[in-house]
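Exercise 7. Predict the joint structure of the components listed below.
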Amino acid sequence: MKAELILENGMRFDGEAFGYLDAQVGEVVFNTGMTGYQEILSDPSYYGQIVVMTFPLIGNYGINFDDFESYSPKVSGFVVREKCHESSNFRAEMELDHYLRQHKIIGIEGVDTRALTRVIRKNGTMKGIITTLKLTNEEALDRMNNLDLSDSVYKVTTKAAYELSGGSKRIAVMDYGVKRSILNQFVERGSYIKVFPADASAEEVMAFKPELVFLSNGPGNPSDLTEIVDEIKKMIGEVPITGICLGHQLLAIALGGRTERLKFGHRGCNHPVKTIHSGTVTITSQNHGYHISELPENVEATHISMNDGTVEGMRHTLLPIFSVQFHPEASPGPWDNHHLFDHFLAYAN
Amino acid sequence: MPLNETIKKVMVIGSGPIVIGQAAEFDYSGTQACQALKEENIEVVLINSNPATIMTDQSVADRIYIEPITAEFIEMILKEEKPDSILVGMGGQTALNMAIELKEKGILDKYGVNVLGTPIEGIIKGEDREQFKMVMNAIGEPVVESTIVKSIGEGLEFAKITGYPLIIRPAYTLGGTGGGIADDESMLIDILESGLEASPVSQVLLERSIKGWKEVEYEVMRDSRGNKISVCNMENLDPVGIHTGDSIVVAPSQTLSDKEYQLLRQSALNIIEAIGIEGGCNVQFALNPLSFEYAVIEINPRVSRSSALASKATGYPIAKVAAKIALGYGLDEIRNDVTGVTMACFEPSLDYVVVKLPRLPFDKFTTASKVLGTKMMATGETMSIGANFESALLKGIRSLELKIHTLKMEKFESVTVEDLKESAKNADDERLFVLAELLRRDYRIDKLVELTGVDRWFMDKIHVIVKMERALETLTLQDLDENLLRAYKKKGFSDEGISSLMKVDTSEIKRMRKIWSIIPSFQMVDTCGGEFDAVSTYFYSTYERYDEVEVSDRPKVIVIGSGPIRIGQGIEFDYASVHTVKTLKKMGYETIMINNNPETVSTDFNISDKLYFEPLTEEDVMNIIEKEKPIGVMLQFGGQTAIKLSAHLSKHDIHIFGITEEIINRTENRDEFDVFLESIGVSRPKGVILGNKQEGLDSIDSIGFPVIVRPSFVLGGQGMKICYNREMLIQALDAIFIRDYSGFVWMDQFLDGQEVEVDAISDGESVLIPGIMEHLERTGVHSGDSITVYPAQTISKTAIEKVVETTNKIAIKLGIKGVINIQYVLRGEELDVIEVNPRASRTVPYISKVSGVPIVEYATRAAMGESFGSMGIQAGLVPFGSRIAVKMPVFSTQKFTGVDGAVGPEMKSTGEVLGIGSTLEEALYKGFISVNALKGNVKPNILMSLSDVTKAVLHELLSSNSLEQFNLFATPGTAGLLYELGILAVNVIEKCEDLSQTHFDIVINTVTIGSNIERYGYSIRENALKRNIPLFTSFETFKAWLKAYSFDSEQKKIYVL
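Solution:
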């Protein structure tokens, strides 16, 4: 069935619909990873977004039920140049098309994704709609205007707290949309984890007597999340805190820093990041639309992006606080920074 | 300035002659490395014996030595030049081996030379199988388990650990006798029994079989500070078992999930950390398709063919970055030239698919066994870039220039499914088409996957193409609509492919495309998947929506490259293409290069103003011409590949510089050639054109034996035979016409004489002759396979004058502007023209270097309309220099089974070396050292089997040479001959079986004239090839060798170019 991707600026890309045939709006972002579509689809940080894959052939190795980052796909829509009809991999259990259809997510293929990527790069991230309906630009815009992503975190966080045991170190994980592989990294390293819903109060968290509080990744704009920030503020100084991505940004705001939207975000598996104290560069997996534009007081950058010089990691000079913007758990992406989880755990009391 | 400021002068070791497995990729990487060094104001001293390369060009290095790559000569250069450092990671296996030898001999320490890049210890760790295994064990990276066993018990013990299947290879047996693959214990016992029996030392190598595993490669880099990146990964379509050089390779991997991708990436990075790589490294993995299990097959601790491919596939200049790392830079300090904003410390993200196809020489070596295995046989490769896999594959197929545009090979239509299955199991150069044919017959995909080990994903894609092809066969032009045609174009079908399946004229398809404006859009290779606004000038065609190319309003010239390297069309044409681009740039034109060979310098996106990585077919080239609207096209420098396009381009009124379709016809069309030569009073051997075999037999009396027959429009004398009698003629003509040859055949009088070759430049008014070369072997040996001497040594002054005069006449009367190559046969002072090529030839780079005349530059200027006067140069014969330069062919024939090592009219060599000397003897000496035929040992063992040499010739040889200085061996007949001439000390080798018992340093076997089946002779040659013994099949070559042998090696000198 014919489908269209209509952008906020009125540009239209036509293609064929796959997955769940309907119309869905979202923020249109591109990801340059050549593998890892399955992890991307199910990464809660992509909630509310229509993801464009720059690699042209998607679905080659199908869908398996081991590599998900959450229990369901979180993207609003998926844009590819060519989806694979017949996957091939020893773990493939399902085709991409069927998986998206079951989860009511629309995909569009046959799009010149390179051209689309260039548009996003030039104009910055825009809203868009993938639709099988014939919509005028006005109609499309109407639907886009209804898109409100300010409560994304609450949509993807766990409904109730739960525990995972891999050992004895007590880690409180604030689930703003946590990726499964982050939890796995902690569990593999002998942690006893309690995962809290995003709206859990500082008191509830502290009642767990955590040796470390970990602020997870998640979707949306950190400055929309004032209540969460308030709870974090209460924990600062009380317990060591580490974080990744949204967690890192929230921490910065809680400490008095500022965040800003990036023009088109960092999304891919090939982002070089320099560790300032050692001077070494590693390749990281990234997925963020915001960055820390102003570091808080008594906080220093530990990592910077080699591509645009933005802050990729920070640490408090007085308190046991350390967080990174990129994704050391990878999934998808290079494993260069798995060791950072040791580093996080070293902060535990 | 380099970070390490003690580096001021660096010696770079090149890779020597082009042989199979070590080809133009090292010219590309070496040139890039030299330029990277020069950018840092470092003085570059280069040694390479290969004169056809761009790296040995004056502009690339400061001090160039075209000398044998041996420890002895390198030491002489070190002594003379006193470099502080040496760079060995750019010259392939040759340079690495040299580095190890120099280190072991203490030469590096003696001259205080520091090794840049990966330290020698690291190289050894990567190269030595035992050490490598130890390092891998230490870091827990799995290798293919193997062990040597001496009994069945030991074998079973090993099998308990590894499981089955196991490969059994008995030690020291030829061709794997007694070996096999065991799937279970009883098979293992059986095979071990026979294997232990077959091995003279009762030893058997047991290796875990990873047959059917996926082969995946990673190109990784590490700097001296330990920063590491993976530039590109590649997946072989063919599973483990076929050399990656002969495999279809796809970048990036297509069937690996992120888990597998990262698993192998991490392993590759762990390995280069453990080895201590400082620069580039290639890591090859076998990956079990049914689990996460993998094994490291091997690593190449240097740049390689794969790194050249990865560079072109991603736009990431591995060799350049490796050179900068060697100077001390970190990956984070080297800029990414493609984006202009990011650094070299990142991993390219591709938003297209790349397919590499091997170019195998079985069109040339028709008798060779074509089954692909672990020994590489491809002479070259093509790379293609597509928006999808199908288009990349189809582009690759047409880039091979095999006159095939689809996956349909007519000849398989009549083959039974049973036979096709057999062919599918034993991969050869046509397996892709066999798979397609099987799918066309509705053979089950899953079965085919099982049969071949080719991943289902690739099989499905082949199936997609086959289904589309099948649909086309039932379509008429009326059925075609815009969407359908666009769908075919998107999947990479060429107009010719579509029209041949629809059985309509190609122009009809093009016409429909124009009506519906289905024209390609060109997209950019930018290393970053569009994430950054790149400054790249590197493009490929798609039928996607948006075209990214910005066409300037500057006058543009399109230069057509020469495609994949094959026997007869090698790296020389890349040299010429690059130089014409450089000249055109200097002249102020915008230059646009079209080529599809990933190994070469011409496809380095820094060379031309724009690079289109595309097939060199009429359609693909016209698409770019229509897009860019150049003032004309340069065809003279891209070999036959480029020249072939002239008819089509002329038909479309595209201007061709310097030559015209008429000029080309006049040299290639025999009738026109005859008329032309007659009109200017130049003689050539008598000849006729044959349309079939009978015509040959009818007209032979008017010419008389011997005759030389050859198909028209071929490269390197393909299918060419000299016939001395009727029987041979029938055989030769049968062989040509049976191959469904639709062209015509030339049958010419064969003149036995001295071959003389000239490369000349004409500005249309007068002619500049940079040099006259003579061939050491007599006519009948292809010019590419003969030893060529410059300047000509034995030709009289009168003859030279005659050559100059005739060359002038031909060039001027042809009306060519630019470069021309003419081959003559000289008998006494009688001169006949054998061949005229209105284009750059194989000898252009060599003559340019030794004569000092920049042939391509002058020819380019002339083609663009400049006169010698305006260039400020004098026409005429350039005075000979004081040095003598000998070009010697290098063969890769030993890589094949079933190919005769004898030289003849059909070209067989893959590369060449140059020997430069003050005397002919010195030049020959260096040449023979470079081709490994002179090892400086006392009293070498020489085997002689002379079939056609008369007593008189031998007598003449003996009058000036003593054979007593050799241990002589001879076949019975030759021994008798020698005995008659008074040489008694000859060991007679009675029969074939005795050959392998003796060590020979040189084998001379001249081929019997008039007899095709001389099995002993063939065995002798085969034996020599198998054992890597220098083989001379022309008596003149042996005489030259004697001259070289007589040279006092103490007198040798090195000469800077």
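Discussion. Chain A has a mean pLDDT of 96.
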